[in-house]
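Quick one before lunch.
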Amino acid sequence: MLLEDMDAINETEIRLRAEHKNVGFCYYTTIQKVIDTIVGTGSYEYLRDRVVDLEDVRAAVLAKLAGDERSGLEGLDEFSIVVAHTLTPSDTARMQASKVVGFVTDRGGPTSHAAILARSLDIPAVVGCQGASVSIAPGETVVINGYSGEIYVEPDDLLKAQIVAWQQQLARRIQRLREISLLPAQTRDGRRISLELNLELEDEIKRTSKTATDGVGLFRTEFLFLSREDWPGEDEQYAVYRELAESFGGRPVTIRTMDIGGDKLCARLHVTREMNPFLGWRAIRISLAQPDVFRVQLRAILRASAHGNVRLMFPMVTSLDELDDALEILDEAKRELASQGTPHNHTMPVGVMIETPSAVMIADALAKKVAFFSIGTNDLVQYTLAVDRDNQRVAKLFDMYHPAVLRLVHNTIKSGHNARIPVSVCGEMAHEPLAVLLLVGLGIDGLSMALSGIPEIRRIIRRTTLLEAKEVARAALVGVTGTEVRRTLESALLAVGSEIGTDR
Ligand code: PEP
Ligand code: MG
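Model of the phosphoenolpyruvate complex:
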């Protein structure tokens, strides 16, 4: 709010024009005037924290103006847990290279992109914990349980011993799951489900184990643009996509065109904070509005398609027009490459994400033009239930088991299968042990998730039959509230046994 304060911005600008001093000096002086006013009043004691806030923000602005891009994660000690008001997806992406072993935020929900990245990086995280950044002091010993969302501050010896025992138990369960990691995700009566990976970061391509997956169901390319300062051109993007395609040796690799916007801001593309960011300038809307940037990405993906089993996917489609426009630019890119004699797969499969209720309602028409559907449940839940996925105040209402969501998922699968195209889920619902039997029973063909989720999902699939899963889905579809649906799924999961808890 301080950064966006129009009085401060206007006064800085006026000083800049009148005094011809540099912008840092003008901003410094503007904020100093406010600080002096506060210090000069009798309520300084009461307002001391506001002065600290002002100084903090001013220091960050001046550092940024001076070209200092440090995130504050650099100088941390080994085994640090970051407790912050909020973390952007790019802050989280930087954690990998730092000493951070976990984080807690006041803001956000379990499908915020900071939380999604934490899952990919296998970093325990608790989000949407209002007041944590104020009530936990720097240097305190903190233990977090990313499964249950619990935080322990300054645990006593007894609690520490319990936590260590729990960690050991968890490690044994994970080890048991690893033992079946090379077996197919197939039900006892032979229904094979494709288990694929969600990847976000470029260096995950090298780091991630590829043996236990059927391919990549979602590569979120926007992180190539967000987590770095320079701008990747066609050749550089091509190199990343090619490495991805080659490293999965013939298995499908699904590359999603950039989904910037929402909680993923990008000054380079003029994507700044909006009043309703998730309803605003986001994903395919930005790509279609900036066809030159879009074309570069499409050309890079097409070129990579000559080196593996590459599939292309468009995010946040809401109408057939958007799909047609995107396909037209793709065709142009193909023609350009063909005329230059540049190798690419002319018949590269193209799919759409089904993540808006409107896409579900016109899924029959979309299905005629694409080779596959991938359901983005994170957005489908947010847009269906009118619940901002990034707002902890409404996080309790973010219910992927809401009957409306179930019916939309069911309808999408039916529309896809009527048109004989496969349908998978790549939202966080795919990572939920509680949702597996339901999704398999509804007829899902594939589930795509962070690597950490795959072993448990595989185990559940291997312990059931398609017949049983269909029965579970039928019972769940009868539920008229999320609670009823959850209850049905909980007793079904109990019957097959769950090794790892569901993320809350
Ligand atoms: C989704 O919305 O479910 C999805 C997979 O896309 P993202 O989380 O990147 O919006
Ligand atoms: Mg989405």
